[in-house]
Request: fold
Amino acid sequence: MSIVKKLQELAINRLDLDGYVSCAPDTIVSDVLKEMRGARVSAVLVEADGRLVGIFTERDALTKVANESSTWSSAVEGFMTRTPQSLTAEQSIGEALQLMNAGHYRNVPIVDEHGHIEGNLPQHEIIRFLTDQFPHDIYNLPPDPERIAHTKEGA
Amino acid sequence: MICPSCTHDNIPGVETCEECGQSLSEAYQDWGSEEFQELLTEPLSVLNPRTPVCVTPTASLAEVISLLQGKNIGCVLVTGEKGELVGIFTERDVLYRVAGLIRNLGQITVESLMTHRPTALSLSAAIQHALHLMSIHGFRHVPLLDEGDRPVGFVSFRDIVRFIEKNFTSAN
Reply:
């Protein structure tokens, strides 16, 4: 199957959507930030009555709260993006890619028909999917083109 | 050669996976697309990498954060006296090291919290090298350097995803 066909036909539920974190709208910002660091995620889905009501991302941490320490004890709902764009797990990976590019999103929440959260699709999962298609080329690259090495070679 | 079924790392050139017996040649025939592979061998310069925003190591976190906010960018590159790359400071660093943790942003230098000597590529490196760094190491930004290790641009996750999307999802 070609990559084009794969992107169009394979559903989002083929990807790992489980590595997400959610919180209630009244969770305070500093707790949300702590949770993001602990779980190593770049976004938190905000959930009320089991439904997706907002998203708070790394970008929000930078633009809305990083240099405003007075916000750290406020509820996250004041800083989240309300009713973010979402997709269902049955939609195609290609659709997710398009939505991410059109909206400059790095995370797309995945919900069911009632708006209940089923997962989160981070952009990194898409990169992983694409590189998985070409394990030989991508995984076995020589290190030469890197300009700066992390560690020196041993003797 | 990583087996697509069990992810066992095989010696390059073997025809079947040593771990699970999966035929590797068939697997790649099915998974691969020459067109896609060719595209990934193109140089990073075809992505029209964005001009980097550079700061000196003594710039304060307050200055750097206001640059990241005002210029709507995800990273700044930190350069030394000769303009050479010495570090990178990204949005992720803001989450992990600053937001909710540090109040006196004006008194802390970017040097103390940046990632020192980040992995970088040249403009002529293939797209797949950047994709590799992003996939394996989770880097979101890869600085691009000239012969003197001076930054000439950077590519982000988004640049590559956009390039892939442009070339593949609209076709057919």
In short: Residues 29-39 of chain A form the longest helix (11 residues). Helices of chain A lie at 3-9, 29-39, 58-65, 93-103, 123-132, 135-139.
